[in-house]
């Protein structure tokens, strides 16, 4: 079989054009593209026409400059959807465990609940964690509070209608107090739950977002109150947010 070298060359040039448009900080014109790629304007223009026809690029009718088109956006979205939360979070979860010395739980946010997806145990004689597959309460777990703070309005509306049971004497059961806490979570970017779910335990969780800016999960450190006190150390909360940001980036999230 004879290799079609001209076809391969043309494909490479088309990909170069797409990458150059994607790398531009704003809409870009033919002259600038040709200069960046070291090609003639005529060559670049031919590829631009084809890419616009196929919706990989879009042209502003007023300025005649180019930006990424719908097909590129759809491909990016399809790619991010194929990266599952478990595999996307594995490296960050181990990093967070090593940074804090605490067990790490990755959870997925569902329509009306938060479910533990995976655990990375701390290297300590006493293991503190949550069994994968366990459903966490929205009001008394750090993960649930993060889901309420950054999740859908439908999830919040569902929570408002629930009667919250007290797991301990410290559990927030009134929606007004919980709503105030959720507002604080939105500002600081993380939530804790000292002795809210069980006496002697605490957790610090942060949200994980996908390419659609949706909160689809959480990553949290879990430990005894003596190791993870009521006022968490700033280094711990920062590490949790860094881990969450790393996973979100893998899933296609772009911070505003």
Q: What is the total tally of β strands?
A: 8
Strand content: 15-25%
Tally of contiguous helical segments: 9
Main beta-sheet strand count, sense and barrel state: 6 strands, antiparallel
- From the alpha carbons, calculate the radius of gyration and give it in angstroms: 24 Å
**Sequence of secondary-structure elements:** HHHEEHHEEEHHHEEEH
Helix content: 40-55%
CATH architecture of the largest domain: 2-Layer Sandwich
CATH class of the largest domain: Alpha Beta
Strand order across the largest sheet? 5-4-3-8-7-6
What is the typical, i.e. mean, pLDDT? 88
What are the salient characteristics of this protein?
single chain, 256 residues, alpha+beta, Arc Repressor Mutant, subunit A, Beta-Lactamase, 2 domains, six-stranded antiparallel beta sheet, two-stranded antiparallel sheet, 9 helices, 8 strands, 17% strand
